[in-house]
Amino acid sequence: MIYVYVAILAGYLVMFLLSLGEKGNPFQKMAARIFWKRQKRQKRANKGRGDWKRALYIRQLGDKLKTLQPEIAAEKQIREHYLSLYTLLLTVVFVGDVFCLAAWFSAHSAAKLIDGVYLSRNAYGEGDVEVGLKAEIPGVQEEIFDYLLEERRLTEEELEKSYTEATALLPGAVLNGNAGLEDVRKDLDLVSALEGYPFQISWESDAYSLINTDGTVQNEELVGGEIVTLTATFRYEEWFRELQLPVQVNPVVYTPEELLRARLEELLKEREENSRSGEVMMLPDRIGAEPVIWSEMIEDGSGYFLILVILAACVLYWGRGRELEQKLETRKKELLLDYPEIVNKLALYMGAGMTIRNAFLKMGEDYKKQKEEKKRYVYEEILMTCYELQGGRSETEAYAHFGKRCQVQVYMKLAALLSQNIRKGSNDLLRILRQEADNAFAERKNLAKKLGEEAGTKLLLPMMMMLCVVMVIIMIPAYFSFSLN
């Protein structure tokens, strides 16, 4: 995996060098370079009438962004949108790749295997260490071990205390899946050491024909159970104690592969016993006439982290698209809520003698005075309409553009009504606007009721969670009180 991580960093370096002429921080420079290359490729495809779906998507994206911010050109908003998205994705992948590298180096820096044959032992007080080992005999067999390498230690008093604890644990440690020492039906795991304890344990049996010192149970010819006494000798340098374990036996057949594994374990035990005073233990390099190649099994989880980083980047990419859709939906709801106010103001100003043009200009001027307090989408569109009117565009076109930009049915209807009044003239416009205002307020009440129901539905999950917490708080004391009684 290290090559993948380094290749990703190399790719970032190449992109950074190619984007030195761009503005911004390194990630923004790279994002600008990617966007420029993408635009160049898109133009080339457009000339050949190739990627029309992509061109359609870009145009739709520009329309959506322009809807949210009509005062900014669509091309500029599309550029800013993609630059922001690419910058975010580049940052996430880069930071994730750095973490992956750190995880890889952390995993491999703790390696205990030296020169392929030596295991580095911890000093006294640092604790035992479990080493993953892979034994490979070329063309014959490969075995994987979780090997416990003990630290160097201990005093006489500590040995006696540890021995008392170890004797209590040993019967359970040798079971190897058997129900108990009184009902052994497969091989025992006659361990040469107990995790957390400093002893090397050797075994003797009073019936080698039934149980060997490596734990092999040979009971193929048994009719009933037989008791075998196993003697475990706990050793630490010159110190030793013996413990007898009575065992009732049962049969198992070994494959050649299992016998070879047992031989490897026996060799490891011998090397451990012979190298207790040294800082390293040399692993056996041959078994019989066959060479043994050792390698350490390192748990490197950095690859999984890279997958999570890529998934996070994909989710962020998808989330940005969803965020745009949610903003459009929020805008639509806001426009619907503001519609009764707009129609009512138009009716009020026209009732006071203003023309439609002056009513729009009045609403635009009032909004500009309080714009810094809160931005409202409908008033932004009204401001755009005012700018069009002041720029010389005809009222009919300005109102039609107003309805088209709002992209909501009621505003399109209002724009059509105003445009029609300008073209044909009508004495009933004020009455129609007042009637429309009454209908709009009724619709707003229904919309507010619907939004309230949706909010109540969203609160159901937190309420259910709170109910579960309350039930747990009530039930646990009651349960313990019942148990004590």
Features:
485 residues, alpha+beta, three-stranded antiparallel β-sheet, 13 helices, 11 strands
Average the pLDDT over all residues and give the rounded result: 83
Low-confidence stretches: none
Structural Rg: 40 Å
- Total beta strand runs: 11
**Major sheet characteristics:** 3 strands, antiparallel
Structural class: alpha+beta
Give an overview of the whole structure.
With 485 residues, this protein is α+β, with helices and mostly antiparallel strands. Helices cover 60% and strands 12% of the residues. The protein has 13 helices and eleven strands. The protein has helices spanning 2-18, 26-47, 52-68, 74-109, 156-173, 256-274, 302-351, 356-370, 377-390, 395-406, 409-424, 429-458, 460-484; strands spanning 113-114, 118-120, 129-137, 141-149, 200-205, 227-236, 239-248, 280-282, 286-287, 290-291, 293-296. The strands form four sheets. Strands 1-2-8 form a three-stranded antiparallel beta sheet. Strand 6 and strand 7 (239-248) form a beta hairpin. The radius of gyration is 40 Å and the shape is elongated. The mean pLDDT is 83.
